[in-house]
Amino acid sequence: MSLDLQHLNTLDGEAFVAALDGVYEHSPWIARRAAARRPFASLAALKLALAQAVSQASPQEQLGLIRAHPELAGKAAVAGQLTAESTDEQSRAGLQHCSPTEFERLQALNKAYGERFGWPFILAVRGPRGLGLSRQAIIEAFERRLHAPPDVERAECLRNIHRIAEIRLDDKFAAPPLLGNAVLDAADHLARHSEPPFAEQGQLCVTYMTPAHQAVAQDLTLAMQEAGFDDVSVDALGNVVGVLHGIQADAPWLLTGSHYDTVRNAGRHDGRLGVLATIEAVRQLKQQGRRLPFTLELVAFAEEEGQRFAATFLSSSALVGRFDPAWLDQQDAEGIRLQDALRAAGHPGTLASIQALRRDPARYGGYVELHIEQGPVLCELDLPLGVVTSINGSRRYLGEITGLASHAGTTPMDRRRDAAAAAAELVLAVEHEAQARPGTVGTVGLLEVPGGSINVVPGRCRFSLDLRAGDDTQRDALDAAVRARLQSICERRGLQGSLTPTVVASAAPSDAAWQARWEAAVQSLGLPVHRLPSGAGHDAMKIHEALPQAMLFVRGGNLGISHNPLETVSNDDADLAVRALLALLDGLSKEHKA
């Protein structure tokens, strides 16, 4: 018989612990401490309370929890001594059917891992979808994490233990995250489209107006139609637009969306998670026979990443009337103009057709976007959702330092004009200046010595510079400090330095009312509200130029890594994201009825 949350809240302490037996391997103390936090408003609240009991435990208790878990395909598994839960999980991952080569590799990894860390390797082998990882995926994760710093790996083990517990709780409560499963299945379905040579290597890459990009647009069109949108179309820039008409014809529309293009060798959820979660939310409304008081418009933006053409945000720019006509003549790496790429894909490719996409701000009440966090904050806090306070503004440059190339053997150290050494000093200066200003970040991501040689003191060094902050005043203060440091470094070393601006983007603070609506939605799920800025840019920061906007972040696994095949979202977190969006729609509906 499955557990019932309402009944669980009424049990005495030891009965509560007994009911949750097996959720955390051989560690009843976790449930015992979490019991004091009752009553739990939701299963998500129970999961969080259990995780917090672990995070607040002593290091020795945490280490004991890790060591309570068995090795993967280890001696206990071979001897049939695993708990029923661990046996089921390792079985779902096929670890009971390893080939001799796989078994030998796992034993070697277990030995090396134990010698390095002193505890067993912990991995939620049922994976983000709950169905079970492949043995190859398990071995790859094992090999990757074997080289992590001990403190990082210890924290990752605890996060995997929480994921194992989450899946076990879903089973105990007979509460599969069906909405999240649908979202992850849809993401996997879209990921079958990729372009060469990435497709041949099993990697995901979908850049603007390629055949793979057009195939994704077709799939999204069909998905929106099947979910129940009243009108679905593909516009002149390839945006897939779904409209769900509201009951009140004069009510302000709600605009939502995210992008479906990807970077090269990408993950499956950046951008697409927000689109697919909204499609699933509309499916739920239609199945319930509900119609919102207001019209909901979903835009799956065709371009956000700037991978094929340099015109980043060209899709959302058109919606706010900021499409630059010069972009039509931009060329990709093969010399194909944007205008010609549009026409080859069946679009008019004219400025008039693009300018017609501009939305009238008077029609809309606001814009909301749901997105994977693309960072480690929520993951480290064991929180599935976070409310965005602002999208960071940025200044980007391509820089160059010029000195004097000279012989590496005959030029004394005190007579060198080394451009690369100056650039290295600047990298550290950027790090120092950003660390001194909370809320700012600075990155030198590219360093190049043109024509460099092993025995030549570098005479030139090129570099990139990316400065970001949650508001423009902070961004500009960091910018001024870094510029001053560059000038100082060059003057002291007898060099010349220059910075050429490439991007200037203003910060996009969340609208207070719309941020509050996301906060209420998160609280309705029994979760605490955690507020955080977005360090990455999003379509929301373009829509911000015309409409009030606010975003909701969803936790990413693997320490929140994104723009990478390791990017992942669990079915439980995706499920909560859909439910949060539905809660926001419910709350907005009540406002219209009031």
From TrEMBL:
Highest rank taxon of the organism: Bacteria
Cofactor: Mn(2+)
Pfam family, one: Peptidase_M20
Main enzyme class: lyase
Matching Gene3D superfamilies: 3.30.70.360, Oxo-4-hydroxy-4-carboxy-5-ureidoimidazoline decarboxylase, Zn peptidases
GO molecular function: 2-oxo-4-hydroxy-4-carboxy-5-ureidoimidazoline decarboxylase activity
EC number per UniProt: 4.1.1.97
Domain Peptidase M20 dimerisation intervals: 397-490
Keyword presence, Manganese: yes
Residue span(s) of domain Oxo-4-hydroxy-4-carboxy-5-ureidoimidazoline decarboxylase: 9-170
The UniProt record lists the keyword Manganese: yes
CDD domains, per database record: M20_bAS
Keyword list, A-Z: Hydrolase, Lyase, Manganese, Metal-binding, Purine metabolism
Assembly and oligomerization: Homodimer.
UniProt family annotation: Belongs to the peptidase M20 family.
Protein known as: 2-oxo-4-hydroxy-4-carboxy-5-ureidoimidazoline decarboxylase
Species classification: Bacteria, Pseudomonadati, Pseudomonadota, Betaproteobacteria, Burkholderiales
Name of the gene this protein is made from: uraD
